[in-house]
Amino acid sequence: MEAGLSHSMEDGTNPPKPLDAGALFVLKSKGSWWHCAYHLTTSIVSPAILSLPFALSLLGWVGGVFFLTMTALVTFYSYNLLSVVLEHHAQLGQRQLRFRDMATDILGPGWGRYLVGPIQIGLCYGTVIAGVLIGGQSLKFIYLLSRPNGTMQLYQFVIISGVLMLVLVQIPSFHSLRHINLVSLVLCLSFCASATAGSIYIGHSKTAPVKSYSVHGSVEHRLFGALNAISIIATTYGNGVIPEIQATIAPPVKGKMFKGLCVCYAVVLTTFFSVAISGYWAFGNQAKGTVLANFMVDEKALLPSWVLLMTNVFTLLQVSAVSLVYLQPTNEVLEQKFADPKIDQFAVRNVMPRLVFRSFSVVIATTLAAMLPFFGDINAVLGAFGFIPLDFILPMIFYNVTFKPKQSLIFWGNTLLAILFSALGALAAISSIRQIILDANTYRLFANI
After folding, report:
1. How far apart are CA 420 and CA 422, in angstroms?
2. Nearest-CA neighbor of 289 among 130, 147, 74?
3. Distance between terminal CA atoms of the chain?
4. What are the distances in angstroms from CA 53 to CA 41, 60, 112, 156, 238?
5. Residue 137 maps to which CATH number?
6. Of 97, 224, 260, 346, which sits 20 to 30 A from 208 (CA to CA)?
7. Domain that holds residue 378
């Protein structure tokens, strides 16, 4: 019971609330700020950053670098706002462990149950589906390097990727991922270094493509392209699990999240800008959806095979860690519904439901990833409806409602940011849905892309 009480015993003036099984077993508060940094880095720096050169190709140098920089500043600020609000409630003896807890306590029960909770679960589960798909694509790429005329289909590799997740998802708690996420931090630096070096090598080689940095197309095409690019950048910087990550920190939590964010953003700035700028410099407006696709032309590699193999192995391993992080909200809900907090976490009564329901959630995610290999378009919609509200709008609202700094600069700044990103989110959602409509005739279940 002491582990359960530690969640809410800060300096609190209120008696601690009893914890449900989800909070008690999945969101254990035992970590340090270093562990927090590992979780944050894994949740933000993922293979999605390999799409940043493509985003820059839709915005050009000035617009691309501007939005890349602005989004970094805004997300760092908004994540710190969330942390400050969480620390404030912890000091009152009301430690909030989940995003929906924040919405319930600050805005009211309906917000947590019917809006923030479903948005977060949908967003995180969508990210898991995308992660399993990316893992399958990396496996297929590795396979084709060794057997260029191989006949295995993409869905077979997606299933293999899903089997790996089926094993890893049984890791009991978020805190238990700290060592995996440290390895993930090293892996993200590795695949970003490989992608950056590959872009620079090709850009200087004799086979370098003709570079053009102009944004082509009609006004309508350029406008929707720019909105898509903003959605891609916002999604790439997105997190969606800040409260759950802070919940893993052992009390007292004050100041620890800020240290973790500083380490995380040192990695973020190093990787995001190096991959985005080198990729766009090397390929210009020919940059593809992922910069790794530019490393092959007419099925011929522009880099040594060992470099491509190494990069895809790094990507496969790191995206597995990312998927594990984004499975935690689902795991927590399942644990809350089906586990008994009054008995040991590893009692048969709790282990069997955990094994069955976590496995079932991964099987569903793997099936959807295999069926919908065009999930990138759908994920863009999830990003517009998920990451932008959770990471760019709600932190400002939570802070203003909690501290009520009316007539102050921070109040009006937060209000302005919330309004601005609400408008951008709406436009990005329209643009993403439009892209699905345009691409709909190319969709095919279990396609071998």
Report:
1. 5
2. 130
3. 51
4. 20, 10, 36, 29, 17
5. 1.20.1740.10
6. 224
7. 25-203+212-440
* Residue 330 CA, distance from chain mean position: 14
The model carries a pTM of 0.91
> Buried (b) or exposed (e) across 189-210, using 16+ Cβ within 10 A?
bbbbbbbbebbebbbeeeeebe
In a domain, 384, yes or no: yes
Domain contains 430 = yes
Residue 297 parent element (H or E): strand 296-297
Mean per-residue pLDDT of the chain: 89
Residues ≥6 apart with Cβ < 8 Å to 385: 119, 122, 123, 425, 429
Q: Tokens 């850009």, residue? A: 203
Give the whole-angstrom CA distance, residue 436 versus residue 289: 15
Structural domain includes residue 240: yes
Question: Is the pLDDT reported for residue 444 higher than 80?
Answer: no
- The CA angle 246-249-252, to the nearest 5 degrees, is 105
For the chain, what is the domain count?
A: 1
Residue 180 has pLDDT above 90, yes or no: yes
Helix (H) or strand (E) holding 300: strand 300-301
Specify the DSSP element, H or E, that contains 403. Answer: helix 394-403
Determine, yes or no, domain membership for 20.
no
